[in-house]
Specification:
Elements (H helix, E strand, L loop, with lengths): L2 H11 L10 H15 L4 H10 L1 H10 L11 H17 L4 E7 L5 H17 L4 E8 L2 H9 L1 E3 L8 H7 E3 L5 E4 L1 H4 L2 E5 L11 E6 L3 H4 L2 H13 L1 E9 L12 E4 L2 E7 L3
Parallel strand pairs: 1-2, 1-7, 2-6, 7-8
Antiparallel strand pairs: 3-5, 4-5, 8-10, 9-10
Helix pairs in contact: 3-4, 5-6
The structure holds S-adenosylmethionine (SAM).
S-adenosylmethionine binds next to α6.
Amino acid sequence: MDDQQFRQLLNRFGFSWSGYRKVRKGVKKRITKHMNALGCYNITTYLAELDKSDEVRKKCELLLTVSISRFFRDREFWKSLEKKYLPDLIDKNIEKINVWSAGCACGDEVYSFKIVWDCLRNSLGHLPKLEVIATDINPVYLEKACAGIYSSSSLKEVTEELQSTYFIKKKGKKRFEVNALLKKDVIWKTHHLLSDPPESKFDIIFLRNNVLTYYEDLLKKKAFRKILDSLAPYGFLIIGSHESLPFEPKDLIAIAPHSFVFRKEAE
Ligand SMILES: C[S@@+](CC[C@H](N)C(=O)[O-])C[C@H]1O[C@@H](n2cnc3c(N)ncnc32)[C@H](O)[C@@H]1O
């Protein structure tokens, strides 16, 4: 599949050409395999198949998802989350903290959060109740997230101390399973970010490296509006460190030193 054909496919879904820049090769390979399995040997017949069948279209959409992630991606942010952002939220005397990891892939981000939460419990003693909802469009990623087993490359930013506390090395393999404690209080759900958000107001929403990277402006705005509505007053929205908002909402303020962390002002 050449670039021109891949572009046609991305346009069909409203995906961004530049967003796929670094992952184009691998994604094209997956799509070509799907095309061959369907007996489509050019993009025109493949696009026609997508129009004919919702199932084929859905499969193709999933093949276009990219699950690249790792524990403590944007390491400095996680330190500030533990030392500043979470203590600030807890100071507001909230009884329960609701967290949404939107587009969570295989769970690295979710378990990173749970590690920070547990470290905070050890330093502060008492914490509010916690509920984490972790959603993704791709059920295969969610199954992996639920299992909580990772290769050493996902853990490259995890300190040895945290590794020995929160991970169990699988016998004979370079794979690590997260401690059962981290799996508690997490609800994993399939969810499309263009549909209505889970019913709750969230104190923290992670919206990192998914729609704001891979979608064209129109869809970015559509998804972003819905997500914003579900952010609680004083709640934090965290986007990817290389991403920007599709528009600047009046009630969101960027929190220095992280230009990708925003807090919603009180209503
Ligand atoms: C690159 S991973 C990012 C994982 C994690 N948030 C991080 O920053 O490390 C992007 C994830 O977003 C998911 N995704 C993409 N589009 C989505 C959509 N419309 N609805 C829900 N999830 C989506 C993909 O399936 C993938 O698992």
